[in-house]
Amino acid sequence: MKLGIDSIKLPESKKRGPLASLDHVKELGLAGIFFSTALDMSPTVDLGELRDIRSKADELELYLESGIGKINPYCSAEEPALRAIGDGDIIAGFTRMIEASAAIGCFELWVAPGNFKSEYRGRMANDRFRTDVTWEEQLAGIEKVLQKLAPVARANGAHMNIETHDEITSFEILRLIEKVGSDCVGVVFDTANGLQRAEHPVFAAKRLAPYIRQTHIKDAYVGRAPGGLDFQTRPCGDGIVDFATILPILAEANPALNLSLEAAQSVDDKRRKANPRQCIEIDDPIWRADHPDLTPDELAAYMATVDAYEKRVASGEVADWEAYEASQYGYPTYEHQSYGFDAAICFIKQSARHIEAICRDKGIALSSPAQKQKAA
Fold first, then answer.
1. Torsions phi, psi for 132 (to 5 deg)
2. Quick one: which of 63, 192, 263, 291 has the fewest CB in 10 Å?
């Protein structure tokens, strides 16, 4: 396995560009980079530019992963670049990205089923609860897009890997894989996003393990708050996710899986919204009714994990929501957002150390440029 990073959350990735970002990844002692889409490598999907990136990644011995973007047709208007790259034809745009990615050896391709808009509160931040179209209609639309692209993916030996994103459940992803085919559809397992659907990360890892082909490795604070539960991204080891149990599950299912850290994004790259709280409205009847696959056993295990984590918070082992937010972002005024480049790098390094330590303890082979340098 190799430990790398998601490009969007790599500080200064847009400012530096893809080639310089590869150097940055190497400097951090990480083993690769996960560009969300081919457009993040080349806005025009220029094969010359893509091959240069592939060549440099190979030279630096870094893994290179990519994707094609949001495949929910009801949120396509919010991602105009996906349609633009196909000269107005979004399916042609997706096709072009699949073919170009495969041409440089990127066969595992990220797709996401919706948007999360942090400026809105509670469930309304999430496409799952849109009021102009039901989630069932959105899932049907996602399936249709995947079915249209399936022949292209198969012809190029590629997999369209659905992220366990904020709005979708692991059960729904499994049904999409069954309908479209595991020969061209897989999973990007985000270790923390399922918490927003009240899914226990270990349960979800076991359910999805045979289909996990890419990852987003991240941790989160989850604790009781007015309206339900607060969710807040934390460095790996400082949150609720049990990596000591999850990483062996992933390693057994796919020993060559790349582990891509997803850190909190530097405010130098993207300013924080005025509404910082992500609320899981777990006690709301509307929210609960929209999760029919959630079993009493898994919900009980989930809440037991929340209880155990709250004991860590109460003991002072980890900061509570307010203390962490204030220390990182100057909440509640946000006049002086302090979580910049240096803080984001510390976040990444702390997360990497935690994952590396667990892999050592569990006997999981983890390759990184830093380890090779030490061995030399």
1. -90, -15
2. 291
